[in-house]
Amino acid sequence: METRSVVQQSAVPAALLSTLFALAGCAAQKTPPPERAQAFPGIARLVLLNANVITLDEAQPVAEAIAIDARGKIIKVGNTFEVLRLATRTTQRVDATGWTILPGFIDPHSHMAGYAMFTDIDHWLDVSSINIYFKPSPGAPGCVTPTDPQRCFIPVQNQSDVVARLRAAVAKALLNTPPTPVLAFNYDPSRLGHDPSCVSKPRSLSFECTTFENGNALAQLDAITTDVPIYITSESGHISYVNTPALAALNICGTKGSTSDGNCHKPIMNINVETALANMGQLDEDLSLYATGVFQGQVLKANPGLGAKLLQNGAEIYAQHGYTLAQEGAAGLGEFGLYAEATAGCQRPDCAFPLSAAMIAYDNSSSDFAKTIAMGEAGRAAFRDSQLVSVQALKSFADGSLQGYTGYLKSPYTNVFPPFTLGGLFAQPYVGLPDVPQSELALRLRAAHAAGYPMIIHQIGDAAISDAVNAVVATRDAPPPPGKRDTMLHVAMISGQDLDQLKSVGTTAVSVMSSNVYFYGLPECQMVLDPQRILNVYPARSVLDRGLPMTLHSDSPVEPPYPLFEIWVAATRNVQQPSWYPNHNPSDCPAVFANSPKVPGDERIGILDGIKAFTTSAAMQYGFTDRGAIKESYIGDLVLLSDNPLDPKVIANPDLLKTIRTMGTVSYGQYFPNRTASMPPVWPQ
Fold first, then answer.
1. Does the residue 506 lie in any domain?
2. Would you place residue 25 in the very low, low, confident or very high pLDDT band (cuts 50, 70, 90)?
3. Strand (E) or helix (H) holding 492
4. Which ranges of 383-480 does DSSP label H, i.e. alpha helix?
5. What pLDDT score was predicted for residue 11?
6. How many CB atoms lie within 10 A of CB 437?
7. How far apart are CA 408 and CA 411, in angstroms?
8. What is the structure's pLDDT at 31?
9. Do 386 and 404 fall within a single domain?
10. Which candidate, 307, 328, 312, 361, places its Cα nearest to that of 11?
11. Residue 146: what pLDDT?
12. Both 67 and 141 in a single domain?
């Protein structure tokens, strides 16, 4: 539930940055002449034949074949005979017999570059309990090293597991000359089970035992080593943890060992709180984003070309799960540089990059929103001639995450643990902290709209959501640009009243983080809050019932970027019951968050609703008028599936979604077969 700044500006090659600033993006340097794109009008470059085509176009709901021309535009949707009439001997033919073709999945929100950087197993240590990267489990055919969590999915189950992995990584790092930092990703204390060190508390879980999120991370990590920096990101991205060498390397103003010459890095949100926590080894919110950028930037600077290679790898994983457009949910110059390098010269056809990307501009180094607007302008200029990359919106934050205790609530957290119990630092009872208050959000909305951008607002807690909604209502006289919508992002605890206000404004979309119900429903129910506030979180059905455009998203690398999985969670509201994290009270925290006897409400949605969340509704969220359906003159973005997710058998039993494979995708008319299609889908567990 957060944003990740993947790489600092300083890690991007100087020549590339000068190109970006010169308003001539690298992606435009090898643009083919216009006559190439317009060649042979009415002639198909690609045809897909004998398929079950579900168009999501009411005028022509089904077909069996599609023709796409050299511009990447759909020129015919019909039967195989009609489509073949547009083919020549040079036309690429794909026999899709037995497959279902849908509009390509559009990513409503994630951080693909952040996801891609953590595929780097040579520099980043996996300490996660969620299979974000679709690794094979021990015993599965693809797992050839069943004891190696870098290559096979072996979840950390308690704090001792995490410490053991860190100690092993430190031992390896010390063998290098000079020793290298130990960088770990996606640690989540809220999902940790009972630790052997909790001898006096045999049923204790996560925060009830020792974790790094207890106000003592610096000392705990220093006990592992002070010879090399240790830096650990949380699963949410809103919190990170450091030892003394890592803290010194970050040079955060007001922390031990920081410089006093004006060159230190200044926190931009809740400055006193963030500085105090940093001195304890815990980096919250913008400091976490900054720190991830620093250490990722060091890796990329030391390994020229690695960033583009990793981004290509991340894009291929997204495409293997059906995406034809991915989002970069908090993009700055570093991200622009990565995408420019990875897509240099890319125009369809004949481009290895398998999808297009929507940049959401954000400057995480300043509280001055004018710099975020300037970032958007720099991105638009850099990619103005790119077919694949574009800036679509600006970003702002209202709060953090529930499981990290940084979500902003109207009433106190049910269970609170250090450091959030520290009076004098945090007001008690503890309700979290806003990142950007309502008045500032309203000013940012006006400024974004005046500059020609819609805005995406991150919001989790009910107080933060009401602030964001009230800001939207207060600026209804200055709406987003025509055809565009502001997006209310995550909306874990949004109320019916909030949704009614949004409906009355009529210029917003609501994007629901459905898979969070599966991965965090149990920890948030029995550890962080209470059933009354948790069982109906992420209320997708309530959004739909009000006629608001509703999308679903993964917020990757927080959770796996897998639309069919996210649809399955939204349709079932199943809650993971990890073997290492026992459910001590299933009557209060059931395995399905719907129709609970104690907390009425059913927020489940239909599979068709879920598919629309990644197609027609996602296009509406962005304001696209040529994506989201299979229709003549639309962009040729398609996903090819092994089976029909709308088959009545699947509708009756959503678990059958687990058996459906992505056979390939089409991006702007270029076909990308899925090289993993012959393997069973790796379903998140």
1. yes
2. very low
3. none
4. 438-450, 462-474
5. 53
6. 13
7. 9
8. 35
9. no
10. 307
11. 95
12. no
CA-based radius of gyration for the chain: 24
- What is the pLDDT at residue 8? 61
Q: How big is the CA angle at 354 (ends 132 and 75), to the nearest 5 degrees?
A: 130
- Say if residues 4 and 111 touch (Cβ distance below 8 Å): yes
Out of 272, 287, 302, a domain closes at 302
**pLDDT tens profile 36-88:** 334 556 899 999 999 999 999 999 999 999 999 999 999 999 999 999 999 99
Residue 196, in any domain of the structure: yes
> Quick check: 21 pLDDT over 50?
no
Spell out the residues 6+ positions from residue 580 whose beta carbon is closer than 8 angstroms to its own: 129, 155, 157, 158, 192, 193, 194
DSSP letter at 524 equals: I
Q: pLDDT tens digits for 143-164? A: 999 999 999 999 999 999 999 9
Q: Is 1 a domain residue?
A: yes
Q: In terms of pTM, does the model score above 0.90? A: yes
Q: Which residues have CB under 8 Å from 262's CB, separation 6+? A: none
Q: Report the domain count for the chain.
A: 4
CA dihedral (74, 76, 80, 81) in degrees, to 10, reads: -140
Which CATH number fits the domain that encloses residue 544?
A: 3.20.20.140
Of the candidates 38, 54, 39, 43, the residue with the CA atom closest to the CA atom of residue 84: 43
Residue 211 shares a structural domain with residue 247 = yes
Angle, alpha carbons 491-497-498 (nearest 5°) = 35
Give the whole-number percent of the chain exceeding pLDDT 70: 94
472 and 575, same domain (yes or no) = yes
Nearest to 198 by CA among 166, 167, 160: 160
Mode of pairing for the β-strands spanning 356-361 and 389-397:
parallel
Q: Say yes or no to pLDDT of 574 above 50.
A: yes
Place of tokens 């308690």: 158
Extract the tokens encoding 215. Answer: 């106000």
- Let me know whether 202 and 294 are in one domain: yes
Task: Answer yes or no: is pLDDT of 520 > 60.
Answer: yes
Query: What is the sign, positive or negative, of the torsion defined by CA atoms of 512, 515, 518, 520?
Result: negative
Task: Give the CATH number for residue 168.
Answer: 3.10.310.70
The H or E element containing residue 608 is: helix 607-613
Q: How many CB atoms lie within 10 A of CB 154?
A: 21
CA distances from 302 to 199, 242, 665 (A): 44, 21, 34
Rounded mean pLDDT of the chain? 93
pLDDT at 9: 55
Nearest residue to 519 via CA among 178, 215, 155:
155
Q: Report which of 430, 414, 432, 406 is spatially closest to residue 530, judged by C-alpha positions.
A: 414
CB 629 within 8 A of CB 56: yes
Structural domain harbouring 94: 44-107+630-673
In this structure, are 163 and 267 located in the same domain?
A: yes
408 and 390 both lie in a single domain: no
pLDDT band per the 50, 70, 90 thresholds, residue 347: confident
CA torsion angle 381 382 388 394 (round to 10): -60
pLDDT for 560: 97
Give Cα separations from 256 to 111, 148, 241 (angstroms): 32, 36, 15
Q: Summarize pLDDT for 412-427 with one digit per residue, the tens.
A: 999 999 999 999 999 9
Give me the DSSP letters along 288-341: HHHHHHHHHHHHHHHSTTHHHHHHHHHHHHHHHTTEEEEEEEEE-HHHHHHHHH
What angle do the packed helices 496-505 and 462-474 form, to 10 degrees?
20
Domain match, 544 and 511 both? yes
Per-residue DSSP letter, 627 = S
Which CATH number belongs to the domain containing residue 79 in this structure?
A: 2.30.40.10
Confidence check: pLDDT of 254 > 80: yes
407 domain-assigned: yes
Q: Decide which of 580, 613, 646 is a domain's last residue.
A: 613
